[in-house]
Write a structure and sequence with these properties.
The complex is a heterodimer.
Chain A lengths: L4 E3 L2 E4 L5 E6 L6 E8 L3 E9 L2 E5 L6 E5 L5 E5 L8 E8 L10 E2 L3 E5 L1
Parallel strand pairs in A: 2-11
Antiparallel strand pairs in A: 1-3, 3-8, 4-5, 4-9, 5-6, 7-8, 9-10, 9-11
Chain B lengths: L2 E3 L4 E5 L4 E3 L2 E3 L5 E8 L6 E7 L6 E3 L2 E6 L4 E6 L8 E9 L8 E2 L3 E6 L1
Parallel strand pairs in B: 2-12
Antiparallel strand pairs in B: 1-4, 3-9, 5-6, 5-10, 7-8, 8-9, 10-11, 10-12
Classes of the chains: A mainly beta, B mainly beta.
Chain lengths: ~120, ~120
Amino acid sequence: DSGVTQTPKHLITATGQRVTLRCSPRSGDLSVYWYQQSLDQGLQFLIQYYNGEERAKGNILERFSAQQFPDLHSELNLSSLELGDSALYFCASSVDGTSMADTQYFGPGTRLTVL
Amino acid sequence: AQKVTQAQTEISVVEKEDVTLDCVYETRDTTYYLFWYKQPPSGELVFLIRRNSFDEQNEISGRYSWNFQKSTSSFNFTITASQVVDSAVYFCALSGLKTSYDKVIFGPGTSLSVIP
């Protein structure tokens, strides 16, 4: 158990809908990262938050947004869902997000299926 | 450009056999980190090792060992006496030394099946 929790574990929804994925980092970790893993694109970095502020942005679609709250949990919002958004979404956390010497711990993932 | 290649897409071994997962990387950085992660069938990603490019010493952790060779830009992972619980997808990854996790480049993964 990495200490990173993600809910829900599975999510099935329809095209055009909006969903929210939730992540709680390990105790003491200030940085949260979101990744998308799909069969055709592999593991892709989406966005990083550090202590409530956006730190880095990757290949995140405009239909997707995220935020990190004062209690450090984070939410990834996916809207106007398309079939191609079906994927495993991972959250990860690390202590401060600036040093590669920190270890990054991943949550169990949320499997999103868009029908 | 930075790139990680894991040429073995799928590997099957019989339990107790040794198996080596290959990882070849390309980078123009003179200092960098290399990583291995494990993704078991349950889906979560598990950090296994981070290796600094300064340190070419091989590392052993139980049945796991890693062979880092800068001369061939390889960071191979060997599992000795494989077990069914080793069945997973294994990802090799690369980053600069003075960068952050958003810049990590993941390889495509090698799916390992250990048959009892």
